[in-house]
Design brief:
The chain is an alpha/beta fold. It has helices at residues 18-21, 72-82, 101-115, 129-132, 137-145, 176-182; strands at residues 25-33, 40-46, 68-69, 87-93, 120-124, 148-151, 172-175. The chain has one domain (3-182): Aldolase class I (TIM Barrel, Alpha-Beta Barrel), CATH 3.20.20.70. It has a 7-stranded mixed sheet. Bound molecules: iron/sulfur cluster.
Length: 193
């Protein structure tokens, strides 16, 4: 079969839970990059994803045991890196951040405790916004800490490398606080393409 005709998996609501799947592992940490969102960012790639998108940009990190355990030392390093005034914020990627909520919640809560909203938090997810609205409490709690969510599976048939911060045209860059307040998806106001 043509690879563009293969599709990612579609879980039922609350079928996949971090409490059953996450090993609290991280695939990599990339401080001071310019590609994972707006401004200078520190990016944490958590390990484990079950969407199995054909053409996944980080297939090795679909394995929940890939990489290293998340540690207090790494968290302290991330906080120290974020403290520089030229760093705009943290980006969570994977793997699937919403299937690694223990790690992502712990880090997000600490960022809000130490920096308030001086640093923003972006996350990528294979879930769509509508799917997340039907998901488990831990996923909704993580969403509550985010500023920006890039949602949806990567679909090879809609691949477009000219898009801002996403790989396929179905994915959206969502303003999370505005979307939660208005109970409907509000797109990032700096979206150009
Ligand atoms: S959701 Fe992202 S990490 Fe997961 S398989 Fe799809 S492209 Fe890969």
């Amino acid at each position: 079969m043509d690879k563009t005709q293969q599709l990612p998996k579609n879980p039922a609501p609350q079928e996949w839970l971090a409490q059953d799947l996450s090993q609290n592992y991280v695939a990599s940490y990339k401080p001071f990059n310019f590609v994972d969102g707006e401004g200078v960012r520190c990016s944490l790639y958590v390990s484990g994803c079950k969407f199995s998108c054909p053409g996944c940009y980080n297939k090795i990190a679909q394995n929940f045991h890939y990489g290293q355990p998340y540690t207090k030392e790494l968290e302290d390093e991330i906080i120290q890196d974020l403290s520089h005034s030229y760093v705009q914020g943290l980006t969570l990627l994977g793997g699937e951040p919403f299937l690694n909520t223990t790690v992502c919640l712990q880090l997000s809560k600490r960022i809000r405790a130490e920096f308030g909203h001086d640093k923003d938090i972006w996350s990528w997810t294979g879930y769509t916004w509508d799917e997340l609205m039907q998901e488990s409490a831990d996923k909704l709690e993580l969403l509550s800490y985010l500023d920006i969510l890039v949602d949806g599976r990567f679909l090879l048939a809609q691949k477009d490398l000219t898009l801002q911060f996403r790989g396929s045209a179905n994915q959206r860059i969502i303003n999370v606080p505005a979307s939660l307040a208005q109970k409907q998806v509000v797109l990032w106001d700096k979206l150009i393409k």
